[in-house]
Automatic annotation (TrEMBL), chains B, C:
It catalyses: (S)-dihydroorotate + A = orotate + AH2. PANTHER family: DIHYDROOROTATE DEHYDROGENASE (FUMARATE), DIHYDROOROTATE DEHYDROGENASE (QUINONE), MITOCHONDRIAL-RELATED. This is Dihydroorotate dehydrogenase. InterPro entries: Aldolase_TIM, DHO_dehydrogenase, DHOD_1B, Dihydroorotate_DH_1, Dihydroorotate_DH_1_2, Dihydroorotate_DH_cat, Dihydroorotate_DH_CS, Dihydroorotate_DH_I. Catalyzes the conversion of dihydroorotate to orotate. The keyword RNA-binding does not apply. Pathway: Pyrimidine metabolism; UMP biosynthesis via de novo pathway. It is an enzyme of class 1 (oxidoreductase). It is found in: Cytoplasm. Its cofactor is FMN. Pfam families: DHO_dh (PF01180). Its EC number is 1.3.-.-.
Length: 277, 325, 325, 277
């Protein structure tokens, strides 16, 4: 581990991880072992990769907020401690083949994952506009950097302490309209992603969302991180956020049914499958 | 000095004793991105069911002290898709595969056995008995010796004689030895233990169960002492029966505990979620431990802790020249 | 705002829900060096036996992941010494005391009850059913509903009507609800769970079991999910029966899980070994959690996680003025 | 925690603990929580108090050797980390009322506990002689300090790398004879204590031993740390090393029966007690 710093309400960790940096594409995440030797915490914690740099053979930066014991432990790490990472994991954001106008929407630490995406989009000649929000000013991550990169940057806070009062979804329609957006990319809590998707669908433009689900493995073997997603064939399947995701086309995700097994999902009870274990 | 790590699951030889635990390595492909699956003693599949299953609602996972709860509910594509896509992928590569099956009735287990009887690439069949018995008000088969035995007898009669049938037991019983004995009497060639004991966590913010399914299976290091005890008791009562020991194995030392208690194969589950390379590391660590104790064959360590102190290892040292195969 | 922490164990009121777990606070005197025992909801004694008992050989303790194994084997001075020296010490000080008893036969339990029936200072009697039944080849009472019920019925018939009889159950059973129901039907006024599930560890240096007694009882955070599940299941099936929940409680949050699952009293065992002040800390933390959730009475939280999401706490908030006693 | 240092093969930790320092007497031990927050190690580790100083309101020093995960964790502590201690625990060494010639025997870290005892004995006008041993030179703890305090100091190592080749027990008889010892004090592994006790009994002088048993609580509530000790009344009881000990009169300890329940112990199976749980 290289450095650790505070960014407003967040912690940022930079880790030397050439193997991960090399294969990284925007939207990837890593899983981090927490608690050290002889810890009682057996599951890894998932974090989006915020930044990748070429220094020291390749570094990755994570941005996180503390909640439970795992993130609290991470926040106590110091420069030169070692950290156990697995990654890059998941399917990254798909990029448009041709230049397009893209609105990038992030709330809380969700916006962290959007900056390398913006870099990639800009490299393809896309126009990038940001909508970034948080509950309060210090929970709005990356406003300065967004302003430097994007054509326009719209900030929102729920308490009105920075930018517009409200949520990113409130601000989104006018940004889409103003920028004549061709696509939306979003990373935020489920409820926000659901609302962002609804807005994009209203404008009839594609939306790519990066979701968060409780994950035990992050590599596709445990089947704990599933959510109902509609496939190419129109059938709903319980797919893994870590392996088929974390990035999905928003309109394919059945947000209203997350946390349930929709009756028409493949293999749903009553849908023909016997109800064992 | 290299240690002979070969082991026998009934009459089937495995190159080493480490296998993935059912449901913890999906159908193998995901782990294959990390290492060559041929390096496993065997890969155990998730439990295959007749129909596709979507599993239980989320959240399906909660962390507990040195463990985790899961309520995946046997999500999987069903036997047709398994035979079409998953098993052939393993079979073509020649990966030793223990196929796990789960059902709600004796008939369903039997039908699964029938479908698998002629499928190439089935090294052994593991019967997940921790499924609710639809014909007995949802009582789990593994909790009732006679129900478990009925499943095993039927599957054994259907399966090809050269494919060992392994009965997988759960620790949520008053007397695991009696369930074990019932399964062996019904024809089980080997036993595997432990499946997850039932646990639960409550989210003290939401004031609700942490899992959507309310209860879930406990796995990880927390269950290690329960699992070692089960293997010990069953090996003491049925010393001739090959045992697959699992539950909380995170290191070669944990695996060694199972071997000393009487297991000839060791399953690794939750550790895979933490470390995709866990099986290889554990195998290496186990080999190192055996070597450091002067044990030249894994087989010599199986059940060793049951023997009077001191006697056995010293004997092995003396015989060391002979025992190199 | 102060939270009303009073609770009822059957008809006996306790000032707060925190009690020591049997066998984890000896007979109280040791802890009294650290804090005033009156601050406990109740003190539970180690299980008292008829004759003095020297217990099992050492080593009697092994650490396991987030837990420990013990094979103390009910070491204690026997009922005579208990009545002569230990109980009077507690009674004279007016310390709420749950006396735990253990026996090898129904007759032995009954005799213990007889000896305790007229002893002053017995707030409740807890029946440790995790003892081998000498009349049934050493099968533990708690693993067999009818044997457990026989003990409870006999003790209940002997004990004074105003002293609640609490049946202490073990999780090593296929169906804890059926054992619970058998005990309640036999007259148990309350139930306590869980006693230690049986576990084992093997010393990979000595190649022998870590405990001299081979197997031992597993306690500590590792068993928390098993214990919460047991309390949840029994409260769901027998909502009117007061439950003492225990197993792995190290913090107020853990205690809160038991309360939400349906326990009105919470026992603290292994945590005492780590922190002699654990009971006081846990009580304070539990009170803080209740307050932070807007719960003004412990009683309102008992079993709350069984009710539909959201409904109950909100209702309590509205009723808050009324519910202050 | 104040300082941490290496002393030969040992680690020494000094902790500010005024409450413990104040009540300390030689032979006391403390129990230390290891592994930090969210550790999987639930039992405390017991350590003898090696030294107590008045600095910072009162400090205690522990000396330990690393074996398992708990002591490994302790060895990684750094100055200013906090440490969770309970103590002082146990019954200290009884001191002779009148000046006497005392031989203090220690092997490995066991000798650490003897120095404050020597101070106390010297303060009462006793003569103090040391016999200190270890497997090899760097496992002989406190040789210099012993030399400064004691009339004579005999060192032993099993490999002969320092002092006499052999064990402390080999050296003991001649030291007892030479110093006309009135009493022996010892702290060492069980087998050594047994041998030391045998020597003292041969010379017919009292011996106080500080024993080590696997302990879950250290405060007398768990009953895991027992060993068979003969009481004033001649009866053998399984007594707690943490509460009735760790210091016992050597001739009272039934060393040969440690790890068993002697058939004639109070409450032994067959000795009248029924065999429950
Ligand atoms: C793909 C993905 C990317 C993520 N990226 C970030 C990021 O860049 N920055 C950031 O701050 N957080 C991120 N999270 C959320 C982060 O994983 C959780 O905040 C963290 O696991 C909480 O751990 P804890 O020990 O503090 O909390 P606890 O609640 O004690 O954790 C207990 C268990 O629940 C799981 N868990 C808890 N909250 C979440 C959650 N929101 N999502 C998934 N699992 C959870 C933990 O992994 C752990 O197994 C991401 C989650 C996913 C799935
Ligand atoms: C009264 C007393 C005083 C002691 N004083 C010292 C001292 O001054 N310096 C020193 O280096 N060591 C001392 N010990 C031994 C020390 O407690 C153990 O070395 C330590 O607990 C080992 O912990 P671990 O995690 O490294 O090893 P592990 O073997 O992993 O420990 C696992 C469990 O076994 C217990 N355990 C292991 N070894 C011992 C042992 N020898 N005695 C008691 N419990 C043990 C641990 O407490 C723990 O609960 C003392 C022990 C006792 C009982
Ligand atoms: C997420 C998850 C899924 C599981 N699925 C199955 C399964 O499909 N069939 C089965 O027999 N056991 C299943 N198990 C149980 C494991 O195979 C294993 O018996 C148990 O988890 C103990 O081992 P561990 O502690 O190493 O995980 C599952 C366990 C977990 C954690
Ligand atoms: C050392 C030890 C001794 C115990 N002795 C008894 C006992 O005498 N009677 C009894 O009913 N339970 C006994 N128990 C079980 C505890 O009362 C409690 O049910 C169990 O340990 C779970 O709680 P915990 O995880 O908080 O320790 C003992 C537990 C331990 C660890
Ligand atoms: S987290 Fe395990 S499959 Fe997705
Ligand atoms: S260590 Fe618990 S009684 Fe001695």
């Amino acid at each position: 581990m290289l450095t650790t710093r505070r960014v407003d309400a967040y912690h940022a960790l930079t880790v030397v991880a050439p193997g991960i940096a090399e294969r990284y594409r925007p939207g990837h995440f890593v899983s981090v072992a927490v608690g050290g030797a002889y810890t009682s915490m057996v599951t890894r914690r998932a974090f989006f990769i915020h930044d990748v740099k070429a220094d020291y053979g390749g570094t990755v930066e994570l941005v996180f907020t503390t909640g439970g014991p795992g993130t609290a432990w991470l926040a106590e790490r110091r420069a030169r401690d070692t950290l156990d990472l697995v990654g890059p994991l998941g399917r990254p954001f798909p990029l448009p083949r041709d230049p397009a106008n893209c609105v990038l929407v992030g709330s809380d630490y969700g916006s962290a994952v959007l900056f390398p995406l913006a870099d990639a989009l800009l490299a393809r000649g896309c126009r990038v506009d940001f909508v970034i929000g948080g509950a309060e000013a210090e929970r709005v991550f990356g406003a300065m950097r967004a302003r430097r990169m994007a054509e326009t940057t719209t900030l929102t806070t729920e308490d009105g302490s920075l930018g517009l009062r409200g949520t990113v979804t409130d601000a989104l329609p006018s940004v889409i309209a103003d920028t004549r957006a061709d696509a939306v990319y979003a990373c935020a809590p489920m409820a926000t992603l659901r609302a962002v998707t609804a807005v994009a669908m209203e404008f009839d433009i594609p939306v790519q969302v990066a979701v968060e689900e409780s994950m035990a493995c992050g590599i596709g073997v445990c089947m704990t991180c599933v959510l109902p997603v509609i496939g190419e064939d129109g059938a709903t399947r319980m797919v893994r956020a870590c392996a088929e995701g974390p990035v999905f086309r928003g309109e394919r995700v059945r947000f209203e049914d997350v946390g349930t097994i929709p009756f028409d999902a493949l293999g749903a009870p009553g849908g023909g499958a016997r109800h064992v274990s | 000095m290299s240690v002979d790590m070969r082991t026998f699951l009934a009459h089937v030889e495995l190159a080493n004793p480490i296998t993935t635990a059912a449901g913890c390595a999906s159908s193998g492909r995901e782990l294959a991105q990390f290492f060559d699956l041929h390096r496993l003693g065997a890969l155990t599949t998730r439990s295959i069911t007749m129909a596709p299953r979507a599993g239980r609602p989320t959240p399906r996972m909660a962390e507990t002290p040195s463990g985790m709860l899961n309520s995946v509910g046997l999500q999987g594509p069903g036997i047709d898709a398994f035979l079409e896509r998953e098993l052939p992928w393993l079979a073509q590569r020649g990966i030793r595969t223990i196929v796990s099956i789960g059902g709600g009735t004796v008939a369903e287990y039997s039908e699964l056995a029938r479908r698998l009887a002629d499928a190439p690439g089935v090294t052994a069949l593991e019967i997940n008995l921790s499924c609710p018995n639809m014909e007995d008000r949802g009582r789990v088969f593994a909790r009732e010796g006679s129900a478990a035995a009925e499943v095993i007898a039927s599957v054994r009669s259907i399966m090809r004689y050269d494919v060992p049938v392994v009965a997988k037991l759960a620790p949520d019983v008053a007397d695991i030895v009696s369930v074990a004995r019932a399964c062996v009497d019904a024809g089980a060639d080997a036993l595997s233990m432990i499946n997850n004991p039932l646990g639960m966590a409550i989210d003290t913010e939401a004031l609700r169960p942490s899992l959507a399914a309310v209860t879930g299976g406990l796995s990880g290091p927390a269950v290690l002492p329960l699992a070692v005890r089960c293997v010990w008791q069953v090996h003491a009562a049925l010393p001739g029966v090959p045992l697959i020991g699992m539950g909380g194995v995170m290191s070669g030392k944990d695996a060694f505990q199972f071997v000393l208690a009487g297991a000839c194969v060791v399953g690794v589950g939750t550790a895979l979620f933490h470390d995709p390379y866990a099986c290889l590391r554990i195998e290496r660590e186990l080999e190192d431990l055996l070597r450091a104790r002067g044990l030249q064959r894994l087989a010599d360590a199986v059940g060793l802790a049951h023997r009077p102190p001191g006697s056995a290892p010293r004997h092995l040292m003396v015989d060391s020249e002979e025992s190199i195969p």
